[in-house]
What we know:
The protein is of the alpha+beta class. The protein is about 35% helix and about 30% strand.
Amino acid sequence: MSVVRITEFRSTDRDAWNAYVSCHPESTYFHQLSWKRAVEQAFSHRPIYLMARHGCEVTGLLPLFVVDSVLAGRMIVSLPYATYGGAIADDENVAAVLIHEACSIARRLDACSLELRSLRASELSLPVRRSHATFCRALPVRADEVLGMLPRKARAAARKARETGRLSVDFGEHLVEDVWRLYARSMRRLASPNYPRRFFDAVVSGAPGGTISLLVRDARRPVAGLLSFLHRRTVMPYFVGFDERVEIYGLSQFLYSESMRWGVENGFDMYDFGRSRIDNVGAFAFKKLCGFEPQVLEYQDYVLPGRAAPDLAPTSARWHAARRVWRLLPLGVTRPLGAWLARSIPG
């Protein structure tokens, strides 16, 4: 029986980590070291990136962060602020060894829990939490076929917005600030804390060619923005924002159809609409309205004996009063306060 050796990532392992991520079929945007750097720079969480080896050959990876939350105590998360995480490995046995080591780390650091945001369950002894679903769909071959891939109602809404003749679309990294401002405004409307601007900057600067920003203007006024991640041949819209003071029917559908159009024109063939909580009826229904079918994610949690799992879900009753107040606060308060709170709520 071969022996799997587990070590922690060091700077000299960069090339080996990158090579494994680039070759593994189940690796995601978030397994890349650029995500590690962005989370470290923006939130100062401690990374513990585990590597499995057989001899000198890398056979698996498990990226982790230690999150010390003022709201929930210490958590180990793979990966914070990310849709996907968990172990990627040559086989289930290697994945199990990596996860067992992560459980040991959680116990040693006296964390309340370990969270693995896996596409599919890797360790059968851990319970599966089916709280989120992701939405992926193939893009058409030609850009002029994008509207045709949308169901009738979504297609009509996107066309209605386009036919106003008022909207213009721009792409580029220079739009990050505008996108973040719209995102922060939307997060206040949704009664959720926004991530800091420095996180957006760290994500974009740390992954050259790995992101694309889209801005929709009504005349010269920014009204919708989107920051998408690019991984292999997939476009993943991730941070979105709207100016709720401007009412344009079909603006959401128009924004995403333009994002899909850009993807087709630039050689991408998959669109990953990202995750939604299954109990978030609005977001879940919108993605289905756009023709995307849910795939339930198999997140897994290890809760230490005698401890309780973190209760940070926005639908939790403990946050109802705070969320009602949040919507009433000025942006000058919610932006910095949200950025501070985000360090304790790992997404």
